[in-house]
Amino acid sequence: MIRDITIGQYYPAESVIHRLDPRVKLVGTLTFIISLFLHRSFLMYLVAAVFLTIVIKASKVPFRFMIKGLKAIMVLLLITVVFNMFLTPGTPLIRIWKLTLTVEGVKQAAFMAIRLAFLIVGSSVMTLTTTPNHLTDGMEKGLAPLNKLHVPVHEVSMIMSIALRFIPILLEETDKIMKAQEARGADFDSGNLIQKAKSLVPLLVPLFISAFRRANDLAMAMEARGYRGGEGRTKMKPLIYQKRDRMAYGVLLGYLAVMILVGQFAPF
């Protein structure tokens, strides 16, 4: 399961999505997430699925690699579905002990599962097609007006960028520790869910030690290079909107307009 987490990883490729300004991808991801909560209709989710499929095709990231991240949230997805199916009041379908499966619960569970899956895949498109440095620059540039309110935009962007960059590093470190312990006879695959969770406990101590060591090395390296925050710093490659970025904003506006119209006039 740990090996299937794709959030924070970057997939290098030559595509129009990779070449887009990071601000466009941040706005696009936020727009896509908001569109999932505008209304509840299967036609809206069909439009969202078509849009997401086109974006994934344009990114040239393998579809199998994109949906692999869903395996990591499968347990959370199942819990969400079960809770909505049995705890939503409505027309009863099946009664199991004191729990009642309702028609409204099935619909609610389907909507929640689709939303969660689309949210994870849509967010993965941004992280897989944007390097951490570009993501930091995009967040800092996009949130620049908040500097007038004395919000430390650069520091917040740097923290989020470092956190995203550390995710694949820590996953790789976890994989190495697991392989080393499996070579010594540890078993992480057999048993039920509780036994598998207990078998992961010995991973925590070396993983935390490795994380703190890497964080300390990074802090010392930044201090040694004279890092003093974002004030007065210049960019080697400043972000400038290109024609493709303006066209991408137009596509996002068109998608949002279609979603609003479908939500208003969809028969179901």
Automatic annotation (TrEMBL):
Domain of life where this protein originates: Bacteria
Gene Ontology CC annotations of this record: plasma membrane
Topology of the protein relative to the lipid bilayer: Multi-pass membrane protein
Main location: membrane
Swiss-Prot/TrEMBL keywords: Cell membrane, Membrane, Transmembrane, Transmembrane helix
Pfam families in alphabetical order: CbiQ (PF02361)
Protein name (record): Energy-coupling factor transporter transmembrane protein EcfT
